[in-house]
């Protein structure tokens, strides 16, 4: 905001272009942009995957300036043409990883590594995953709430058919995650001219729903899909707020669990492509349960609170802390696995507004979905054989299309 040119009492809010002084005024064929604490522990960094030139990874210096670390970190990809991008922690080491699609070029799944104080990203994309396609939006989310993130490529049927693709990224204790291709079912849309795509939970059942837009070269309707696997899994949706009550874009949410360690989500101030993701940290937990949640805001404020067993399968609102903790110092390039809690402020459980979907009746309950909703057929719990981590066997379809009018009660 430009305070001198603004007059908020008269409704004038003027913005001033500070790109040059911030160090981000670089020539670009800009496509995807994603904002969050990628290298910093709390401050917002910026990743841009670009066309006809190198990508940018602007590291926030904490003083209003940024330094482009794309080349030194190994994510400049200068000869490819980026499109959709998403931030996630695929190997659950606490470091933010980057996935993006290149237009008819190799798609990238970059894990953030660090050695000797330097950050490097390493592309672990398998041949199937990296296979070039006319990609638009890329989404990273846990569609079946089994703890493992899926990556969805919304491909654009450009001059011929181009089916959408879905992969599950299976975290392993020792070694890189396995990448398993799944059958996206109705969301395959081989003739779809997919452009934007987002996930959210339309009906409050704790299962993410997928919305795809189409167009550009031919009008096609929106499509809406719901998952058909994992209904019995636990989940938690966390919504951090700014001091003004807005969605806290750029916040980092870490959920500590009883059995599976820490899970990280970024409330992404960008992502996707021709769209933007919901400002909600959605955690699929399988049979595990959360024990506590910790939120770090872009200004370094931190808050944590316990999560009771009775709060599982609900939406937790996390307000901005009210006290006057000092701001956190700018982070070093090497990000610690779990941020220090030295500046944290323990939130009481009571001030947090708890929206429990089962209590409010806002949507079909997780357990009653099959019995109460005429629009959905009850799905069995996954048979163990379907959980085989076999990269060569896409064994089940993941999405069923729905008519939007039937979706909401
Ligand atoms: Ca590029
Ligand atoms: Ca990681
Ligand atoms: Ca999953
Ligand atoms: Ca849903």
From TrEMBL:
InterPro entries: Crtac1 (IPR027039), FG-GAP (IPR013517), Integrin_alpha_N (IPR028994), UnbV_ASPIC (IPR011519)
Stretches with biased composition (Polar residues): 335-344
Keywords: Signal
Domain ASPIC/UnbV: 248-304
Superkingdom per UniProt: Eukaryota
Gene Ontology biological process terms in this record: axonal fasciculation
Disordered: annotated span: 321-344, 357-386
UniProt-listed Pfam families: FG-GAP_3, UnbV_ASPIC
Keyword set includes Signal: yes
PANTHER family: CARTILAGE ACIDIC PROTEIN 1 (PTHR16026)
Record-given protein name: Cartilage acidic protein 1 isoform X3
Gene name of this polypeptide: LOC102974572
